[in-house]
Amino acid sequence: MAPFLSLSVIFLLLQFPFLSLSTNPEGNALHDLRSRLSDPNNVLQSWDPTLVNPCTWFHVTCNSNNHVIRLDLGNANVSGTLGPELGQLHHLQYLELYKNDLRGKIPKELGNLKTLINMDLYDNKFEGKIPKSFGKLKSLKFLRLNNNELSGSIPRELTHLPNLKIFDVSNNDLCGTIPVDGNFGSFPMESFENNRLSGPELKGLVPYDFGC
Ligand SMILES: *[C@@H]1O[C@H](CO)[C@@H](O)[C@H](O)[C@H]1NC(C)=O
């Protein structure tokens, strides 16, 4: 019995550091994302959770302080859902998930990404509402949600984003009126086409969720 027991102990000791090394919160968040996704092209193969941080993983870019600033999984043939863990990427500037087969709701926790500049979720199968929490994305310049299955109205909170330059929600199932406040006055009508939107709102006259 003794040799068997000592082998078991060695096995446990070898396994324990393997499990305990993944203490990097951003690496954990990305690994949680990986566990949600089906990845037939193996683009996530380099995402090894035993490394100290995710900075050497393909499709992940870090700054000089080893914080994740880019996630580049556009056109990667991944499918599945997103979870709240993406809200842990507190230094993220570029979230590129366009042209995949992503489904389900857009997590409201993405609204915690205060440094986000560019969010590209277009050409997927996201459903449900555009999170109101996106009104907290004060650094956001580009928000492309077009070609999904999003419903509900355009959150009025988005009109308070000071840096938003490009906003595209075309080809969804959105309802209500098109806001005209803030930067929304300057977005072209093509950004809103192919929805159930009922045209630009008249200030104070038309309820903005009219017809929803
Ligand atoms: C995407 O994945 C599917 C399997 O889910 C596969 O059949 C298809 O060839 C892949 N497409 C590309 C462009 O790699």
Automatic annotation (TrEMBL):
Residues 71-171 form the Disease resistance R13L4/SHOC-2-like LRR domain. Keywords: Leucine-rich repeat, Repeat, Signal. Residues 1-22 form the signal peptide. Residues 24-63 form the Leucine-rich repeat-containing N-terminal plant-type domain. The keyword Repeat applies. It comes from the Eukaryota. The keyword Repeat applies. This is Uncharacterized protein.
